[in-house]
## 1
Amino acid sequence: MSSKDWIEKDYYATLGVQKSASSDEIKKAYRKLARESHPDHNPGDPKAEERFKAVSEAYAVLGDDAKRREYDEMRSLFGSGAFRRGARGAGQPGGGVPFDVSDLFGGAAGGDARFGGGGFTDLFSSIFAGGAGGPARPRGPVRGRDVETEVVLDFDDAVRGVTLPLALRAPGVCDTCHGDGAKPGTRPKACPVCHGAGVTTRNQGSFSFSEPCHTCQGVGTVVEEKCPECLGTGGVTKTRTLNVRFPAGVADGQRIRLAGRGEPGERGGPAGDLFVQVKVRPDELFGRSGDDLTLTVPITFAEAVLGTDLRVPTLDGAVTLRVPPGTPSGRVLRARGKGVQRRDGRAGDLLVTLDVLVPAAVSDEARAALESFAAQTPPAAREHLDARLRRVG
């Protein structure tokens, strides 16, 4: 931004806050306005895009405590009219007490402590040259935005791992010009205004200001013959197909990062990243708890009492588990190494929960057998209930 922006633009009004607003109030106002005016939420609306740029510019200054203090001081100084063209001074009709600019800002020797001890020139260089009194920096390469998409995997594919083609329609590097925006057979040339520096310097009275070159937008180069495909932007919206490897054991909700597969950067900057959000379809048989697979298997009352050998399926076959006599409902049997493959090469377990079924109806023969069984079986121990039952009568 130029020095004129600092003097003429009211960033507080842009964000809709008072000059006394706290940092949190400024941040809250910026986030609200940025969401409302973001180009992604207002496609094809140039006014919303300009509004978003203005809000971002205002927050870049007011959101930085040091820049905000300098901005306030600069606005206060110029707002008084002391440095405007035609301001009255000593020897002019209606003029006040004569003053010297060097006296106001501490002179050439020492300077005012408010401005870092370097006087008015250092103040301007700090504000308009990117801070810290350093030289103005051109707008260099900008990293592309990250892209996020979602893919749904079958349960088996998530557990075993799979490679799938992923089709994305998003901005990408132009295949015709390979991202430089120039017509094939030509190349971008050094900017004729800044001669490749990316910045221009202009004088205003006794002061000199450097700012990004308006001709090349701070890049240092211009495209004379634009690429017919991307019209000089270096990027186009296109459908890309990527072969994405989902590792064994990928979990529901996990994000996989593919570096450099997002949107292309601007002005030669690196591309952003692609993040793939994984959703896993539930399996009709198995569940999952971390690296362990879970399975519920029903058994009969007789199997629970007498014990049995139980054959259960796994992801790659079957396994036989021993149900010991007297097994209660809800007991968990473990088949080691039959779960999800871990990254270190080991595997989780298969956890089998036994569910003892109680029949809703039995035959006369079965009822007689159960009554005989009950007569020969001691009742369940309920001593811990007796005291409470005696109190309630």
## 2
Amino acid sequence: MLNGFWRVLCATLILTVSVVTPNFADEIKDFRDGHIYKTIPSGSLNWFSQDLSFRKTANFSDENGHSFYRDDRWKLSCPEGTRLPDALDWDKLIHDKFMGPRKIQNMKAFVGGSSMGYYKFEEDDVVNKRDYAAYYAAVGEVGTQVMMLDVKRGVAKLVQIEDADAVQVRCVSDRDLLAEKGVSKKDMILTDKRDGKKYKVELRAGKVWMKSNLAFSLSSEKQCYMEDWSSCERYGRYYTYGEALRACPVGWHLPDDGEWRDFQKERSSIDWESLGRGGCHDWDGYCDGTATGHYWSSTSILKNMGRSWEFRRLVRDIDRTDENVHKGLYVRCVANLQD
């Protein structure tokens, strides 16, 4: 068995280097033909990062195997659980991915191996209207509307084509934003894949917050209130400021001062019994564990000090202080739903 020193050392190494793959599907399988599509998250949607290649609904396939679809087959072509993006979806993607100094590079990366241009059916011939743009289907209210991505100039805009013209298709699906953070929507429980511990969470101030204190990398009773293991089971473990900055699971983070400000604005819904207990580890002593709970933020204003928040249960009050980075305080992790 490991003695106390080696248990603490191993826990420190785990806390420093632990890396976990995010808990969400980054690919979609089309069960009609077995094709697998990688996805790109943007806002509330996952976008196919490759062009649709379902041949049974395609009107035309070029010599490189790219499939093109007329508008009467667009909505029939996306796999089950996905759909064709509309003009608003495209607009949100453009503002998310194709703005700023790297818009051309980002657009080229999105277009990837897409075929440039679109196809016109003229009498008995199929003609490619080739240029420096890729054309994709977009649900529209008027005419046959497509999104043109000009990879030479980094320009994206909706244009009209003829009904008989065929373009490529990118499908989208709704993101399960909670599942991406490791949260079960059914019971609102976060499972930390690093150690299997589970935490109740809540939606608060537009973000997902843990409702109990983090207990990751717990290895010594010295990390607990009054050096009592049962206190760690009840309150979680103490972290120094440096430990707290890297303690949260992948996709989660230590809240900054502004996020704590937003959290405590809804005073009537604060769980004082949970937040206002467990105290803190103050050098060789402890803060009042029956009536206070002390929490790190990621904000640091003064040298060797970290901004902290103290919840005082009995008087229903909150203090914001700057504490020495070596003190032991609790961690509540928070996650942005779309990042």
